[in-house]
Amino acid sequence: MSTDKFNLPSRREFLQTTGSLAAATMLSKIPLPTVHPGGSDLIQVALVGCGGRGSGAAVNALSTKSGPIKLVAMADVFADRLNSSFDNLKQSVGASMDVPDDRKFLGFDAYKHAMDCLKPGDVVILTTPPAFRWVHFTYAIQKKLNVFMEKPVTVDGPSSRRMLKLADEAKAANLKVGVGLMSRHATNLIELHDRVQSGQLGEIVLMRGYRMHDPAGYFESLPKPDNVSHVEYQIRRFHSFLWASGGCFSDFYIHHVDHLCWMKNAWPVSAQALGGRHYRQSPEGITYVDQNFDTYSVEYTFADGSKFYFDGRCVTGAQGIYSSYVHGTKGMAIAARANDCGGPSAIFHGQNPTGKPKWQSTDTSNPYQNEWETLIDAIRHDNPYTEVKRGVEASLTASMGRMAAHTGQQVTFDEMLNCEHEFAPNVDKLSFEGDAPLMPDETGRYPVPRPGLSPKREF
Ligand SMILES: NC(=O)c1ccc[n+]([C@@H]2O[C@H](COP(=O)([O-])OP(=O)(O)OC[C@H]3O[C@@H](n4cnc5c(N)ncnc54)[C@H](O)[C@@H]3O)[C@@H](O)[C@H]2O)c1
Asked: What is the value of pTM for the model shown?
């Protein structure tokens, strides 16, 4: 398959590959064996969104130890993504896979076909860009499926309100739903949380989170090549477009937002923020067309007046800092020593993280595996389990900081929740033939945030 400089297959190649797999799809009427989750019976899994995280989540699912589990169906919008995920999974967890060609599905309705292969009580993994989360979750609930969905689960006010309703429906239907905010399953942070709650830091007065590194993922994008549709271009480069991902702020920074607010057991009531784009040109002098700022600095305020500062930066050559801290009246703690939730976490006597810590975590288990053990255990033992409401609240808190930076205004949690600007209103009807939720102007550029000039809308 030939690729252009963006590593995208041409539209013709896409249609050819899509066509052959879609034809196989039509032959798929082979019923799968009945499943009886609970006890040690087989749990079947479908993967929707076969990219990096989806493939990783499938490995985690199939590596759970509590009983038989099998991947039986896969869905994606792009054949190259599905095929490479299938090949990689085959090598690592092939013994736990039963995904013949007629259970590989492509296109915007592929998620339905993949879920149709499951029985009530099975599990679907939702790891597409977040814009599609509510669409796919709606169908999973209809099919009475348990769900693992990646963060962020929403990117704006309207989809957050929709997801909160769906969370209630899933709970009422006794469905188990895990959300990929894996900090909550990182043992170092669980232990730190217990210690913070028991008062070892005193009252929390300040928290700090930093994710500052080179441009990562699809943070920046050059103009769309002619041989690719708008929809394909934006979905493949989803970190560049606010409708698809909430941008780098929501997609990259939500983990620190989530675990620091957890330490406080509260969501901030408001945010004010700074942000801007220092570098809009590629080294070759071509103007990037994505919607991200390259620096963000957010001051979150909790109801008791205490603060949480978050700094995010995607700039080459600037100092890299990727860690988080909690300060209380009796001392301070390192929460994530590195990355999103990496340990060891530690508590110190004063306000400096120096000298011998009062306590330091020792557990090094993998939070991505832990979150799956917990979800599958809840399914097998029929324990109530849903992380969706919390996932929406973390997503909203991320959106609130992002919107404060993008508009140059203070934004409250309630204003974010009730904000009427829906970034992709008809995302459930998206097709490769139609317009994308965001269309460029005649120069190929998309609307970008203009703090101060656009105080009510982010773009
Ligand atoms: N918890 C974590 O640490 C973590 C890490 C990485 C990514 N993620 C999250 O996982 C999600 C996916 O990220 P990724 O890095 O795997 O991206 P990715 O681009 O590697 O994978 C996304 C996949 O979804 C497919 N897709 C897009 N739209 C689809 C649709 N409508 N139907 C079916 N398939 C569709 C894409 O073709 C692609 O294969 C994001 O929400 C991201 O924030 C979480």
From this structure: 0.92
